[in-house]
Amino acid sequence: MKEFIPLDNCIVYKSDIVAFIDEKLSKLINTSKSGFKEYLETNHLSFGLSLQMTDISNCKKYYLQAFKALEISQKQNFSIFSFEDCVEYIISEFISDEYDVIDFCHPVAVFLMNYDKDNNTDLLQTLKNYLFFTTNPNEAAKVLCIHRNTLFYRINKIKDLTGNLLDNGAELSKLYFSIRLLELNGILPAK
Length: 191
Known about the structure:
mainly alpha
């Protein structure tokens, strides 16, 4: 461990190792060249990273952020996870603890989920990748292992089936979040 994080930057707190990492060390830890991820995987360890600390008097806040990132990394079988990447997981937990997840999903996402089940299609995954790679449909097609023309055929089919033109940023954001919410709660397989 001392090869990656200087021991004078660490303390044991509530049976956890808490390390104070500066920007330089954070970049090193997050690069594949450092070997840190492989070290964690080999030793069956997980690592939660808080936002960059700006005020030492708020160290409890940063500890809780790192702890939450660690908790999510263990649930998701990630070796390294940062609080910065936790937003959708935390929101998903809040929603699923109090409500039926489907009630928070955009109607188009729910319709396509059911349509895919009934017709053995993959339109919802197509939409997810189309939205994720908004400026690069070639990459979306590549991830889906389909031709670019097939991608656009499916997107046009989604538009025809749902009546949604997929031309409104707020709608697109809600659709993508709905798909992720379904995946994070195990209603859809994450692909």
